[in-house]
From TrEMBL:
Alphabetic keyword roster: Pyridoxal phosphate
UniProt-recorded name of the protein: UDP-4-amino-4, 6-dideoxy-N-acetyl-beta-L-altrosami ne transaminase
InterPro entries registered for this protein in UniProt: DegT/StrS_aminotransferase, PseC, PyrdxlP-dep_Trfase, PyrdxlP-dep_Trfase_major, PyrdxlP-dep_Trfase_small
Domain of life (superkingdom): Bacteria
Active site (UniProt): K186
Gene Ontology BP annotations: polysaccharide biosynthetic process
Pfam families assigned: DegT_DnrJ_EryC1 (PF01041)
Gene3D superfamilies, per database record: Aspartate Aminotransferase, domain 1, Type I PLP-dependent aspartate aminotransferase-like (Major domain)
Modified residues (N6-(pyridoxal phosphate)lysine): K186
Family: Belongs to the DegT/DnrJ/EryC1 family.
Length: 381
């Protein structure tokens, strides 16, 4: 069988000379952290998303942790999320001792199903963490309506969806708070990094407090003298460095171009896979314009007469970096020990069994896409 000469990963950053120059310039400046690049980067993200405020964190998980703090999540609360996500979407509320309730996914979009969400609400529910899985926005209008009705806070996990649109509007202003991740495989990168955008000034203040040890310059502190400050709550050191922010500013300038390229490549995959028996390209909801963080197909093992694992292994042997996103979060030993059982979310579990992520990132060529599809077709016969 034809094998690629070099390994094609499922996702990868795109760093150019001007990105490198921006980081070097900051290395030579007086500020390596807590300097002017942070505010510039935050402004760039807030402007792009159309939000009033943005707060940068050391990574997306820390940003979600901060959002849970701002939302006042505590032990005894319940937080609802989807099982088809990276563990951080659930872990962030566990850090405060909250219980996670997993609501099953919609069988077409693979995002949280609003009907299942309503069924998961109890008097203890405090917040919802919906995820824009693969970059396709969740049904945020419906989710916000439900949240208003029950008095819940919505923290949208937009780790995949910076640059995606919902009903013609970019993700980032519909929820109470939205998280974007800047990990290298995400739409643009700061190596490690995360941002929360919000229109709420109270959340904004709390996010900043949590990021820096819970230290604030209060009126009382100001009266004491210039050196004085107060630690008013228990926070963390979750700061992003200026080196990362400088890279982020440079990368934000390329985001739209990267997203457009992802859309082209995804459209090419869909065109080439349209009539391939046993392989279902990802469904796109009419109100959603995906940012295409991931291109994940469904394999019908019965129709193909092969297991997902066989196909996965043969693709990997052909140097194609296929992946699987995601293992249902409550299947992990940590969550199993908390008492979650397999079978909890049948749609998610069935979806997981057939899922296969094909490589997709802006630097890929059309030729790469043709090769991936050719190898896949060859394997499945
Ligand atoms: C990447 C990711 C995160 C966490 O982001 P980090 O920056 O890696 O901490 C959270 N949720 C989802 C869905 C992700 O893909």
């Amino acid at each position: 069988m034809n094998k690629r000469q070099s390994f094609l990963p499922y996702g990868q950053q795109w760093i150019e000379e001007d990105d490198i120059a921006a980081v070097i310039e900051t290395l030579k400046s007086p500020y390596l952290t807590t300097g002017p690049k942070i505010a510039q980067f935050e402004q760039a993200v807030a402007d792009y998303a159309g939000a009033a405020y943005a707060v940068a964190f050391a990574n997306g998980t820390a940003a979600l942790h901060g959002a849970c703090y701002a939302a006042g999540i505590a032990e005894g609360d319940e937080v609802i999320t989807t099982p088809i996500t990276f563990a951080a979407s659930a872990n962030c509320a566990r850090y405060f001792g909250a219980s996670i309730v997993f609501a099953d996914i919609d069988e077409k979009t693979y995002n949280i199903d609003p009907d299942q969400l309503i069924r998961s609400i109890s008097p203890k529910t405090k917040a919802i963490v919906p995820v824009d899985f693969t970059g396709q926005p969740c049904d945020i209008d419906t989710i916000m309506d439900i949240a208003k009705r029950y008095g819940l806070v919505v923290i949208q996990d937009g780790a995949h969806s910076l640059g995606a649109e919902y009903k013609g509007k970019r993700v980032g202003t519909q929820a109470d708070m939205t998280m974007f991740s800047f990990h290298p495989v995400k739409p643009v990168t700061t190596a490690e990094g995360g941002v929360i955008v919000t229109d709420n000034p109270e959340y904004y203040e709390k996010l900043k407090l949590f990021r820096t040890h819970g230290i604030a310059t209060t009126t009382y502190a100001k009266e004491q003298g210039d050196w004085y400050y107060e630690m008013v709550d228990l926070g963390f050191n979750y700061r992003m460095t200026d080196l990362q922010a400088a890279l982020g500013i440079s990368q934000m300038g390329k985001l739209q171009q990267f997203i457009e390229r992802r859309r082209e490549l995804a459209a090419l995959y869909t065109k080439l896979l349209r009539n391939v028996r046993g392989v279902t390209p990802p469904y796109q909801a009419p109100e959603a314009l995906s940012g295409w963080h991931l291109y994940s197909v469904q394999l019908n093992e019965q129709e193909l007469g092969m297991s997902r694992k066989q196909i996965f292994d043969q693709m990997r042997s052909a140097n194609i970096g296929v992946h699987v996103h995601y293992i249902p979060v409550y299947w992990f030993p940590y969550y199993q020990r908390l008492g979650y059982e397999k079978g909890l979310c049948p749609v998610a579990e069935k979806w997981y069994e057939g899922a296969l992520t094909l490589p997709l990132y802006p630097k890929m060529t059309d030729q790469d896409v043709h090769e991936v599809v050719a190898v896949l077709k060859n394997i499945i016969g």
